[in-house]
Amino acid sequence: MIAALINHLWQSTLFCAGAWLITLMLRANGAALRHSIWLVASLKFLVPFSLLFSIGAFIGLPAARIADGEPLPLGDALQGASVLVAPTVTLRATDSNLISVTLAVLLAIWLIGALLLCVRWFIGWRATDSIVRAARPAPGASQEAHVTDADIEPAVARVFHPVVLLPAALLGRLSQPQMGAVLAHEREHIARRDNLKAGLHRLVETLFWFHPVVWWIGRQMLEERERACDEAVLGNGHDRADYAGGILEVCRHCRTRMPVSASATSGDLTRRVRYILGSGEPAALGAAKALSLIVASIAIATAPLIAGAVQDAAHRQELLAVNTRALGTAEVSIGPAASSRDFRRQLIADANGVEIRNSSMRDLLALAYDVEPWDIHGGDWLDSPRYDVRAIARTPVSEPDDLDPYALRGLITRLLVSRFEVEIHLNQRCQSPCGRYAMTASNTPL
What we know:
There is one protein chain. By secondary structure, this protein is of the alpha+beta class. It has 2 domains: 2-301, no CATH class; 330-441, no CATH class. It has helices at residues 2-25, 31-43, 49-59, 73-85, 96-134, 176-191, 194-207, 212-235, 240-253, 269-278, 287-328, 361-369, 409-420; strands at residues 66-67, 70-71, 136-137, 145-148, 155-157, 163-167, 262-263, 331-336, 346-350, 353-360, 376-377, 386-392, 422-426, 429-430, 437-441. The chain has a 5-stranded mixed beta sheet, sandwiched between helices. Helix 3 packs across helix 11. The protein starts with a helix and ends in a 5-residue tail after the last strand.
């Protein structure tokens, strides 16, 4: 468990470093895009690459089959790739009691930190909710604007059905243009669903409170969030001087900041005021940067899926080779099927070997040569009588629950020749070993 957590943390940290480099490349562009990139970096902590890796393994790739005991070239390629895509953390063997105590202590420390943060967020939510309940609609303003007697700065409260809270003491101190700009800033928070995004990152902070990168991401998200709203307010035509003056008046007369809401004076106020008064408009993203972002996003999302699929194919290829060798030297016995009424074939594998129950000659041939049973032609004797086959392996069968029936190919072909002396033709070509009696197994009827 510790190894998996360490893997997840360094992968998420590396992902965060990549997000930081991308935001540096986009520093001349809009802050809304950079905020989205930081949000993705935050949510990465909730989605380990191992999960995407497992999904890719579940989807899988077709494993290369073995011919005459030798792996196909694709199998060699997959086996070589597995070293690159499946790094592991090697841990030295230690006393199990020491490991248990260490895990218990670390879990207790994490739980205490997470509970403290939960209590902190809950207290802030209760305080905000009580203010919202006591607020009243603002006269002459939009429906979402509410006036409160609490000594707070203008803020957006609630994640769902958000409202803008305006302190009553501030209403007479701001000019109409200043109030309009401040309200426009808060409405941008609602339009961008910033409280929801902040709540998602708050979940990440609660789960990974011990990781300083998580808190650094939070600060970057806060700065870019406020910059994005400032850009939107100025882009809608509000006067820069009125907007900056309104923010300064809020700082002068409002002392309390809402604990869990997007407020008017969040972020670095000095940098914000300098930007509002002196900076130009952000540059357009451009086709080249947009294409690069799309390609990078696709690569990041699909790389773990592809790695998982390749790793799984390599594992199945290796497992097929191991079990083919183990069953190639197995002791085989065959006899009449114990159940003559059930026409379903059963393949039962365990570490000691394989048992094929109630199998017809057609089933054995299809199993041996990986063809569909209805593509095998030769007569009614292919379906009756039925047999039980038992193979006792001299070496253990690896992962018998996931046994690939193709591992039985060599065993069954030798059984067919030694017991029934049949000759197998696949697409008009005799397969080794050949017997005295001829039959055909092909993908197209001959």
